[in-house]
């Protein structure tokens, strides 16, 4: 299994996708979701801290870190299913620390890879604390930064070879009947 972080990083590093960081000139930061950080480390022995930062920096001209970050970053207040539950006042109360942390960065855009975190920051904290920031998923940022040029015959051939190598590496058989 490959995470979205590993896949996007591989695509960028190999030139499979090309990005234009001048599209995003505003100061940008990354929120470290509990699920991809602390919980991932505890449950699977792997946390995704560096990959989202590296990918974000490939898409944005101006990057700033939140403090604290990585394993010590603050929860946004929507974890543990709280976003889906009717505890808005509690979510906002616990999210106040994240809102302050975001304000301190002076960032105009925050990248939140987790759907609960994105919704909490975008739909709740930004309104409640008048943050004036844009919130995006990591893959949304990448999609918005894509350079889409028609491929040459050589690039098509290389892309097909990369696809086949990836399918072989991941033991994907597209001819297999279900």
Offer a concise description of the structure.
By secondary structure, the protein is an alpha/beta fold. 47% of the residues lie in helices and 10% in strands.
Supply the number of structural domains: 1
Q: End-to-end span in angstroms?
A: 19 Å
Secondary-structure element series: HEHHEHEHEHH
**Largest sheet, described in full?**
4 strands, parallel
Q: What is the C-level CATH assignment?
A: Alpha Beta
Rounded to the nearest angstrom, the radius of gyration is 18 Å
Query: Hey, roughly how much beta strand do the residues contain?
Result: 5-15%
Count every helix, treating DSSP H or I runs of 4 or more residues as helices: 7
Total E-strand runs: 4
The chain-level mean pLDDT equals 87
CATH topology: Rossmann fold
Unreliable residue runs: none
- How does the helix and strand content classify structurally? alpha/beta
* Helical residue percent band: 40-55%
Query: What is the molecular shape?
Result: globular
CATH architectural designation: 3-Layer(aba) Sandwich
The spatial strand order of the largest sheet comes to 2-1-3-4
